[in-house]
Design a protein that fits this description.
The structure is a single chain. It is built from 12 helices and 18 strands. With 412 residues, it is an alpha/beta fold. It has 3 domains: 20-116 and 362-412, no CATH class; 117-226, 3-Layer(aba) Sandwich (Rossmann fold), CATH 3.40.50; 261-349, no CATH class. Strands 1, 2, 3, 4, 15, 16, 17 and 18 form an 8-stranded mixed β-sheet that branches. A hairpin with a 5-residue loop joins β16 and β17. The longest helix has 31 residues, at 33-63.
Length: 412
């Protein structure tokens, strides 16, 4: 079985001879009681945050009460698709993604929320690699409860993930779950299925003939779709909404506690204030370019839904790793993208915290926890499981110098 798992060949652009594309950790990491409680708490808070953010955006598109947010959420969608986009976003106002996955840093704060990304095949394979039987993995148990006897389809729009997705789908079928994987050329939106569990992001879904047929079937109540066709689960704007003057009143202090202050970049004179005893910079966005590397403890990332830019860490930048010119050029890009195109870039503090993990040869590592959660039909949160990524140097995307393993609650 181990050889079959290795044959997944995740096709990272940075792989060495290791067919995983990263270093798998066989021994699970055991969360402490406090860590596990925090993981469960974050799931509940993110669900509440998602719902409030979705309702705000849907109502704004319907009434026009926020020109800023209306422009932001439609910026990545082609102009001729925006009428249909508004219709489906308004319709899906309170329809939460059934599966979501935040990225949690070493200080147990959230840096991003995805719904759900492409992490389920990774998690399934890593659980099997650590010795869990397929039918007992968290993913199979979740799918079995969620999908039941429905015929489900995974639209494989990103065909580089074909091996890993088929590996998961075969296991699902062996466990009695009717999950079919269809590549772009194979996918028929008018086929007889009950639920789409993976689809292209909303801009591409709206832009394709197959996607528009699928959306019409969803609007007519013929099929389910995860995530529903709302833009909020697909962009990185939720965290800055917790702190923005137009939206911060919607959220509680407890909800804000999931992350560090996060801001939308709008102009050069804009002031940023991260606090924390002077460790993080203060001043204007423009002044960030002139700081030295020890002072520029911030991350700037693209927040919208443009193809390529939104995933894989392609447009995420740690200013401590950039020279003055590179920082200045990035700030110009971010401000211009907002002023000219309506696209949003966000700024967050860079969390330097490293942790020593006994399961990783006692090395001090940056850590990223990626817990998965499922929302059942009663809108209750069910914790699925967590993948942990470890690396010695700060980077965004997992590759051959990154170690991945699964996390489980401590038995103590």
């Amino acid at each position: 079985m181990a050889s079959q798992i290795f044959d997944l060949a995740y096709q990272s652009n940075h792989i060495t001879d290791d067919s995983w594309g990263f270093i798998p950790i066989k021994t699970p990491y055991h969360f402490t009681a406090d860590e596990y409680h925090r993981i469960l708490q974050i799931g509940l808070l993110v669900k509440s945050i998602f719902k409030k953010a979705q309702v705000f955006i849907s109502e704004s598109l319907e009434s026009g009460h926020s020109a800023l947010f209306n422009r932001l959420v439609l910026a990545s969608i082609a102009e001729y698709d925006r009428t249909l986009a508004k219709e489906v976003i308004i319709r899906s106002k309170e329809m939460l993604p059934m599966n979501f996955r935040p990225d949690i840093l070493g200080d147990f704060t959230v840096s991003e929320i995805q719904a759900p990304g492409s992490g389920y095949p990774f998690q399934f394979a890593l659980e099997m690699f650590s010795g869990t039987e397929a039918k007992r993995t968290s993913i199979i148990r979740t799918y079995k409860k969620w999908l039941g006897n429905k015929r489900a389809v995974w639209w494989l729009y990103n065909e580089s993930l074909e091996n890993s997705v088929h590996f998961l789908a075969r296991a699902c079928q062996e466990c009695g779950i009717d999950l079919q994987v269809k590549k772009n050329s194979e996918f028929d939106p008018e086929d007889d299925f009950g639920i789409i569990i993976k689809r292209p992001p909303l801009p591409e879904l709206l832009a394709s003939d197959k996607g528009r047929i699928l959306i019409r079937r969803w609007l007519d109540g013929e099929i389910e779709m995860d995530p529903p066709p709302h833009i909020i689960p697909e962009v990185k704007y939720v965290l800055f909404m917790l702190f923005h003057p137009e939206t911060c009143h919607l959220f509680t202090d407890e909800e804000r506690s999931i992350c560090h202050p996060t801001f939308l970049i709008t102009n050069y004179e804009q002031k940023v204030e991260f606090s924390n005893n002077g460790f993080y910079p203060t001043g204007s966005i423009e002044e960030l370019a002139d700081l030295n590397n020890k002072q520029a403890n911030v991350v700037i990332k693209y927040g919208g839904a443009k193809k390529w830019a939104r995933f894989g860490g392609h447009e995420v930048y740690n200013l401590t790793q950039m020279n003055h010119k590179e920082r200045g050029d990035l700030i110009v890009r971010a401000v211009d993208d907002f002023e000219i195109n309506g696209e949003g870039w966000i700024i967050q503090p860079f969390i330097k915290k490293k942790i020593v993990f006994p399961i990783d040869a006692q090395k001090e590592r940056y850590v990223l926890f990626r817990p998965c959660y499922h929302i059942n039909p009663q809108e209750e949160i069910e914790y699925v499981g967590t993948v942990m990524g470890l690396r010695g140097e700060w980077k965004v995307h997992g590759s051959s110098d990154c170690s991945f393993g699964v996390c489980i609650p401590s038995k103590k």
